[in-house]
Amino acid sequence: MFGYEAEERGEAYPALETPEGKEVVVEFLEDHVRVVNTSYGQRAVINVKVGDENYSLWLSRIGLAREIALLEKKLGSLKGVKAKIINQGRRGKSYSYKVEQI
């Protein structure tokens, strides 16, 4: 989806949770999503800041990955961009997300 080669897992922070029905405001700390090798296979991840804390935003749900990929495509770089992520809940077999630049 992101078109990057997998790399070894870099700097990792605690995983950011995006609870159903809640919104989380993040600031992206990296230019682009990274694809890394994990014990579960290849995973897409980007480091973000929420308030004063750093987190790793794992894009394991296709709805969230799609929204982040579209934002990255639109802007070219995500570093320094603030966005609101809303987990809209389960829609059939998958979860639906809305990501808005703020």
Q: Taking Cα atoms only, what radius of gyration do you get, to the nearest Å? A: 13 Å
* SSE order, one letter for each helix or strand: EEEEEHEE
Structural class: mainly beta
Topology, number of strands: 7
- Number of distinct helices: 1
- Please, what is the oligomeric state? single chain
Q: How many separate domains make up the residues?
A: 1
Using the alpha-carbon principal axes, give the shape: globular
Helix content percent band = 10-25%
Topology:
Layout: E1 7-8, E2 23-28, E3 34-38, E4 41-50, E5 53-58, H1 62-75, E6 82-91, E7 94-101
Parallel strand pairs: 1-3
Antiparallel strand pairs: 2-4, 2-6, 3-4, 4-5, 6-7
How would you describe what is shown here?
Strands 1, 2, 3, 4, 5, 6 and 7 form a seven-stranded mixed β-sheet that branches. This protein has one helix at 62-75; strands at 7-8, 23-28, 34-38, 41-50, 53-58, 82-91, 94-101. It has 102 residues and is mostly beta strands. It starts with 6 loop residues before the first strand and ends with a strand. The radius of gyration is 13 Å and the shape is globular.
How would you summarize what this structure contains?
The chain is mainly beta and 102 residues long. It contains one helix and seven strands; from the N terminus they run E-E-E-E-E-H-E-E. Strand 6 and strand 7 form a beta hairpin.
